């Protein structure tokens, strides 16, 4: 497992090496606005399977992804007017939106839906921009374990760790499911950064 200190090598070199690893089926631990995430290219089935195995995550637990922008997002999910409202209000940031997926998302990631967000962290954002496709956004810990805010806390078995130092101990992203009626909000404050009320109110705004 190679550890690269972003503060020492610089953002450009760190992202360049991480993207090269992702393109070749590697797993990369990277910082986000919440905690360290475990990234694989979303369309690389072998890499996605490794994510499950490294985390010891049950295969029936779907993965979320990070996208660079709405244009990329629209290639992998059907973006509704309601989703557009939430994107304008909360993103980039720690809100994951579940939508019906397009065939470009492998069933291994999720058989029918896909949860995604645009990250506000410069490293995570640069990774998906340079790679040109989404990466998995699951936390870089063993399934059920505490969220990793330091590289010493991430799971083993990955190819590259982008060390951004200790991250602020923020909760994981709030999740809103727009494939159900009415929309369902999970990990609302205090378990996540946003309250159910503010998410649902944003859906009512013109």
User: If you average the pLDDT, what whole number results?
Assistant: 97
Distance between the termini: 49 Å
Order of helices and strands: EHHEEHEHHEEHEEEEEH
Major beta sheet summary: 6 strands, mixed
Number of continuous helical runs: 7
Shape summary: globular
Explain the overall architecture.
By secondary structure, the chain is of the alpha/beta class. The protein has a single domain (2-204), classed as Alpha-Beta Complex (DHBP synthase). The protein is 30% helix and 21% strand. The protein contains seven helices and eleven strands. The strands form two sheets. Strands 7-4-6-5-10-11 form a six-stranded mixed sheet. Helix 2 crosses helix 6. The longest helix has 13 residues, at 11-23. It is globular. The mean pLDDT is 97.
Strand and helix layout:
Elements: E1 2-5, H1 6-9, H2 11-23, E2 28-31, E3 36-39, H3 45-55, E4 64-67, H4 70-74, H5 81-90, E5 95-100, E6 113-118, H6 122-131, E7 135-136, E8 138-139, E9 160-163, E10 174-177, E11 184-186, H7 196-204
Parallel strand pairs: 1-9, 2-9, 4-6, 5-10
Antiparallel strand pairs: 2-3, 3-8, 4-7, 5-6, 10-11
Notable features of this structure?
single chain, 206 residues, alpha/beta, DHBP synthase, six-stranded mixed beta sheet, five-stranded mixed beta sheet, 30% helix, globular
Would you summarize the structure shown here?
It contains seven helices and eleven strands. With 206 residues, it is an alpha/beta fold.
């Amino acid at each position: 497992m190679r550890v690269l200190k972003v503060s020492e090598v610089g953002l450009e070199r760190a992202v360049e090496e991480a993207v090269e690893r992702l393109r070749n089926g590697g797993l990369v631990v990277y910082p986000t606005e919440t905690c360290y995430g475990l990234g694989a290219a979303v369309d690389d089935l072998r890499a996605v399977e490794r994510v499950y195995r490294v985390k010891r995550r049950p295969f029936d637990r779907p993965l979320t992804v990070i996208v660079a922008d709405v244009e990329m997002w629209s290639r992998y999910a059907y973006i509704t007017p309601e989703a557009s409202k939430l994107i304008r209000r909360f993103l980039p940031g720690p809100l994951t939106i579940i939508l019906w997926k397009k065939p470009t998302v492998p069933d291994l990631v999720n058989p029918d839906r896909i949860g995604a967000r645009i990250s506000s962290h410069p490293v995570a954002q640069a990774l998906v921009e340079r790679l040109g496709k989404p990466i998995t956004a699951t936390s870089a810990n063993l399934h059920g374990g505490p969220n990793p805010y330091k590289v010493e806390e991430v799971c083993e078995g990955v190819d590259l760790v982008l060390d951004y130092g200790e991250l602020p101990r923020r909760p994981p992203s709030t999740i809103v499911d727009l494939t159900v009626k009415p929309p369902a909000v999970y990990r609302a404050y205090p378990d996540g950064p946003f309250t159910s009320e503010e998410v649902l109110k944003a859906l009512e705004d013109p």
